[in-house]
Amino acid sequence: MSDIPSDLKYVASHEWIRDEGDGVVTIGITDHAQDLLGDVVFIELPEAGAEFATGDDLGVVESVKAASDVYAPLSGEIIAINGDLEDAPELVNSDPYGDGWFVQLRLSDTTELDDLLDADGYAELCEAES
Amino acid sequence: MGQKTALYDKHLQMNAKLVDFGGWDMPIHYGSQVEEHHIVRRDAGMFDVSHMTVVDVTGADAKEYLRYLLANDVIRLQEQGKALYSGMLNETGGVVDDLIVYLMTDPDVTGEWFRVVVNCGTREKDLRWMADHTAKFDNVALTERPELAMVAIQGPNALAKVASVLSDGRVKLINDLKVFQGLESEGWFFARTGYTGEDGLEVMVPEEYVADFWQALADAGVAPCGLGARDTLRLEAGMNLYGSDMDEKISPLSANMGWTIAWEPAERDFVGRQALEKQREAGVKQKLVGLVLESRGVLRSHQKVMINGEEAGEITSGSFSPTLGCSIAMARVSANIADTCHVDMRGKLVEVKVVKPSFVRNGEKVYS
């Protein structure tokens, strides 16, 4: 069973969201997602300052197995990207909720946070997919 | 649930992630495909390849039968145990399968006999094809050997680590093995062959002994490796994968298998010969090349290869090369391709280098 921390929020496309307060969130992909992808070898992320609406393509994760789009789980502006992933994409496999984070977003609409799945909801979804 | 090899319980014990592979439940990796790849390039890893199909070809006409069945010529096998890689072709010159054939000799049997190893995904088709082609011969018998499990131990330290778990007699046997040679020892078969571009062994083991053998190897420091790493290793080594890089519609001449066709002696008739001769005369329009992507991204099979904006072929196998740290691929393209071309990667045209389809041997980059 994959790890699904209870303090995070999730979307069905397998991204996790951590509410950092003040309308800022950190985003990454879940343990379940990295397990499905296998070893991650490249990650393409947007530049700081780019703006996204919910559901937009945020980037691409290339693993040994497949290329997979990453979607913006919320609307907002990129305020930070995880530069470590350029040289160490394997962090996504080894620490998907920690050092393997992707981007930080300043939300344009904090009420969107209410639409996210909690850990139980996401666990049910993974269960249903497997 | 698929078929299980005799090592299935070992795979579960060693935390394998299992996938369906040609109807078999096989390990794709035991944690990290990339780490397993590096272990084989740097030390020693082992693969369960028991799903592969072993067929013994015996009888007074065995040799003449194989000279007819295969595009390569088993007459080239002049020493006990020597192995030959060959395509088994259809009448239109397409590849029914690729295989390895070993010249076996047995003191209890008069005459020569052969051991053939074919792919698992093509087993039924191959067995039917092989059986059908015995009709022209009076004395050929085909015996499948499903009771033999097979373990491939590959890497620079593979032979030494295997030796550490064998009896003295078998240690001598493997130390004396030449590259591409396999010999029997009391029901076991040790061959210095593989599918990784590294030195190593493929060992056929009666299935009742294979779990203990596997465990002994693990205890000797040989890492279990899955089919994921096997695929990236063989791709780096420029070895074809049946069903991806060639199939029944593809000529060996368009699959970098020209070297496996024994044209001489010209009077030898083999299945597909006429078609191949016509193709050779007409000129081969497509060939299999290697591609290297020096920028970021991963080449994938079926992506289109473009020359001057025109579609000129497609990738047959593509992946990330853990040894080189960039993406590599094999592609079937117009024979007149230059030393660069473009690949349509998810809608973007990306420039790639065109090289011979061989990227890494014995741990080192080989293309330039």
UniProtKB/TrEMBL annotation, chain A:
A Gene Ontology BP annotation from the UniProt entry: glycine decarboxylation via glycine cleavage system
Coiled coil: none
Reported cofactor(s): (R)-lipoate
Transmembrane segments: none
GO cellular component: cytosol; glycine cleavage complex
Pfam families membership: GCV_H (PF01597)
Record note on quaternary structure: The glycine cleavage system is composed of four proteins: P, T, L and H.
Name this polypeptide is given: Glycine cleavage system H protein
Gene: gcvH
TrEMBL record, chain B:
Organism superkingdom: Bacteria
Catalysis: reaction(s): N(6)-[(R)-S(8)-aminomethyldihydrolipoyl]-L-lysyl-[protein] + (6S)-5,6,7,8-tetrahydrofolate = N(6)-[(R)-dihydrolipoyl]-L-lysyl-[protein] + (6R)-5,10-methylene-5,6,7,8-tetrahydrofolate + NH4(+)
Molecular function via GO: aminomethyltransferase activity; methyltransferase activity; transaminase activity
Record flagged with keyword Transferase: yes
This enzyme's EC code(s): 2.1.2.10
SUPFAM superfamilies for this protein: Aminomethyltransferase beta-barrel domain (SSF101790), Folate-binding domain (SSF103025)
Binding, substrate: 202
Swiss-Prot/TrEMBL keywords: Aminotransferase, Methyltransferase, Transferase
Entry GO terms, CC: cytosol; glycine cleavage complex
A single GO BP: glycine decarboxylation via glycine cleavage system
Residue span, GCVT N-terminal domain: 7-264
Domain called Aminomethyltransferase C-terminal: residue spans: 287-360
Subunit comment: The glycine cleavage system is composed of four proteins: P, T, L and H.
Reported function: The glycine cleavage system catalyzes the degradation of glycine.
Family as reported in the entry's similarity comment: Belongs to the GcvT family.
Name of the protein in question: Aminomethyltransferase
Organism: Amphritea opalescens
Gene: gcvT
